[in-house]
Amino acid sequence: MSTLAFQGDVSDLKYGFIPLQVHENLQSMMFADRVEAAKQLLQLTNSVAMRYVDLGNFLIFIGPYLHDENFEVCTNVEFTIEALIQKFGSQSLYYIDQLKSIIFPALRDIRRAVRIITVNMMVTYSLETQSFILLQTALDEFDRQPNLAKAELLTYVNSLIERIKPPESYFKPISSMLDSAFMVQNGQVRSSAILLLQCFVKLAPSIRQILTEQCESFLLDDIPKQIVPSTPKVNSPSIPMNGMSPRGNFMKKFPQTPRIEKNQIAYEITEFGKPRISKTANDIFAIAKKQIIVTPKLQGSPIARPIIESFIQEPIDDNIFRGNSIEHIPIMNDSPPQSPKFEPIFAQSTAPHAQEVNNSSSEADNIDFPPIITSTHTITISSDDLPELKSERSIHDTFSKQEFPIKPDFNDDPPKPEPNHISFAIVEPKAENLFIDDLSSDTGTYNRNRIRRRPRPPVLNIQPSISAFQDAETPQPKKYDVQEPSLHVKPMKVHASTPRNYHKYQKPPKIPQNQAKSPRKIVKELAVDDIISDLRSSEWEKQNEAALYLSKLIVTNTSFVRDNLRVFVFELFPLTTSIRSALAKTALSCMKDLAENFGNEFTPFFEATLNELLTVILSSKIFINKLASDCIDLILEGINRKTAIDFLLQDHSKRPTQCRVSLSYNFSKLCDDINDPNAAVKSLGMFITDASPDVRKNARNAITKMSEKFHEFKYIISNSSINDAEKKALLNCF
After folding, report:
1. Would 520 be classed as within a structural domain?
2. Full-prediction pTM beyond 0.90?
3. DSSP notation for 221-234
């Protein structure tokens, strides 16, 4: 559609450029119609001339579609507004009030995508107008917004200062904004505040001088990070399970196979003398207390010498690195080698053929190694102290009876190492074998003695706590001839859960003995503290239950509610803005019932109540908006009439659009009770020139009623001191 199409008859178009069909489709209940209309609206915006567009009224109309249920509608509407802002440029500053009225409801939307496109629109407005008026609005309204909107306002400020550096006069308000953000117990708000703080300090380092201690605690200095090598991954070995016995499948701890670089020796020593295993690609050596055992492979390694010298702190004879035999290096020359008392590193039988050895680490290592195929190199340590070597039990059996004694309390104790074992083998690996062979193949070596536990005797004399039988039918436990003390168990008491009771029961006075006894009556007294404590509870279910109970008390105990009306109303304020829609609905319904039944009692504190409800009316949820509007109407209708009219005659031009609509509607309802028409002219002039069509409609209704009551009202307007634009708009209504 070309520009000439709009020059033909602009009166047939809505807001100067929207055809009637597109306008109707935008208000359709069908998603498809709204999406198509939003796309057509974007196309029309790109081709329309700026002089035909009524931007102020268009923003009021299109505001609810910025947070529509369909996100595609939201996106096209946001692109439309951005295109119009770019067309108007700096002239968009005249429509800042209309823009603010649609921005904050969209920032409170629960969908993050809607909030992001709203922030983008705010940044576009600030860049096109080259002004910080929207930044000042964000700083002023920050504390009054919910956490979702606070996080997005911080993001907007962060995005804006990256493109335009604000004047120094904004440094102090931004610092206060950050201080308030860090006091909010919300992760998203704090994350956005930290990003803004880092960006702002980087762009303007002078802001550090005005930062509070709380902000400085969140300031991250640029500290070079040390590169830590990543831990090598451990691949589990492939283990054939079919050849193992059931006990071995569940009781055996299978080793893992860590990947270790070649020619890299890892060594560790414990201060308690327990052995530590160090492994290279081709060798394993052990360091025990008082001595170091070296394998033939390790003797020929060029990197073993400095490691051993670091332990003994003295030069080593070169001969130990030349031979092929296994050498013992004493660490302290003045003391003879002693038999270390610890669990064996490797234990193997004295059979001449090579066998697989279970390589399990010590308790302090917590490291597993793969099984090793060993040769016949064996070293016997302190053989003089082990006369029992003649026994054939040369294998350290983990499941032997000596390590798992059967005790009468039927509890398994952890295995205790035997003080002296047979031999310690320093082994030479031939190749890594990732598979574990069938351990039950060699019955002579891996014979596991099965342990069978005795059955636990039944516990005697246990009385059931809850029984479905009567006392006479309760089955008695059988008695056994076992000499064990009986157990006496105290019967358990079960209390059924009861709902919260808000009544205190007072005991009636005692009757003297000389008087005749009469039936005792229980006097009920309502517990106000319990209701208030539940309204302040951190559990929304309790709050909802207390609000429902309060609604019932309005009918059942009117005097009680009237005496505590102010307390109940102020306790309901936080509940009306709850993120729980059900709780907010219950609280507003309770507030509506209070306003309907105790309208005149709201007079002393009606202004605080109305200010709170005028904030709730900005909610994006329609039913919350409707309930808040009903509460405002009932309160203004129920309180003292002169007080209500004086409140409505105040200047409300800086309030949001929805608030002005509600106040103008109540003004049109109560204008019949105005006795001084001169006092109403200024407010009517403000309402009749408002950007919202609903406000102007309510103003015309009020003018009609005033002209019927005061026949000279037209002449009063002509002689009033209001500006010419307002006077002309008022006179056009006659």
Report:
1. no
2. no
3. P--PPP-PPPPPPE
pLDDT tens-digit readout, 417-465: 544 444 444 444 444 444 444 444 444 444 444 555 556 655 544 444 4
Task: Tell me whether residue 46 is in a domain.
Answer: yes
Alpha helices, H only, 364-509 = none
- Nearest 5°: phi and psi at 535? -65, -25
Q: What are phi and psi of 268, to 5 degrees?
A: -145, 150
CB 189 within 8 A of CB 154: yes
Tokens representing 1 are 């559609």
State which amino acid sits at residue 671.
C
Total domain count, the chain: 3
Higher pLDDT, 311 or 687: 687
Domain containing residue 322: 255-435
Query: How far apart, in whole angstroms, are the C-alpha atoms of residue 421 and residue 506?
Result: 79
One DSSP character per residue, 172-197 reads HHHHHHHHHHHTS--HHHHHHHHHHH
Query: What does the alpha-carbon distance between residue 236 and residue 257 come to, in Å, rounded to a whole number?
Result: 7
Q: Are residues 259 and 213 in the same domain?
A: no
Which two three-digit tokens encode residue 86? Answer: 């770019």
For the segment 257-278, the average pLDDT, to the nearest whole number, is 40
Q: Using H for helix, E for strand and C for coil, what is the string for 13-57?
A: CECCCECHHHHHHHCCCCHHHHHHHHHHHHHHHHHCCHHHCCHHH
Q: Which residues, other chains included, contact 519 with Cβ-Cβ below 8 Å and sequence gap of 6+?
A: none
Rounded mean pLDDT of the chain?
69
Q: Say if 114 falls within a structural domain.
A: yes
C-beta separation of 560 from 553 below 8 A? yes
Report how far apart, in Å, the C-alpha atoms of 134 and of each of 38, 86, 194, 196, 545 are. 26, 16, 21, 17, 42
Report residue 345 as tokens: 């590193």
